[in-house]
Automatic annotation (TrEMBL):
This is Holo-[acyl-carrier-protein] synthase. The keyword Amino-acid biosynthesis does not apply. Its cofactor is Mg(2+). It is found in: Cytoplasm. Belongs to the P-Pant transferase superfamily. AcpS family. NCBIfam families: acpS, pantethn_trn. Mg(2+) binds at D15, E63. It is an enzyme of class 2 (transferase). Its main location: cytoplasm.
Amino acid sequence: MNEEKNMTIIGIGIDMIKINRFKKLIFLYGLRIINRILSFNEMKEYNHKKKEEYLAQRFSAKESLAKALGLSIFNKEFFKNCEILQNNQGKPRLIVLGKIKKILKNLQIKKFLLVLQILKNMYNPL
């Protein structure tokens, strides 16, 4: 309980995407875009899921993490150093590796909250 009282929010990252955008990216770039965004372990899950939805969720979650930490997703290592995998009940869990793990350790971050939400109909602003 004391641990929860001492928790501080260091950043919030939010990202909204259109799944159709990823359908187009997969069509245009094929494995290049998939290999850029997904880790090796995510690739295993990807082959058994709705591909564009899975890719869109992973990209969005990783971009949200980058925003919360104030990092750039354009660093080639970023996408490969964090992965979002699901446990047996389907709950997503974020695993950080390499450089990102070091950054979190330096910031003394031990916990983070990850929410993945799929919106089927997202309207364009006027």
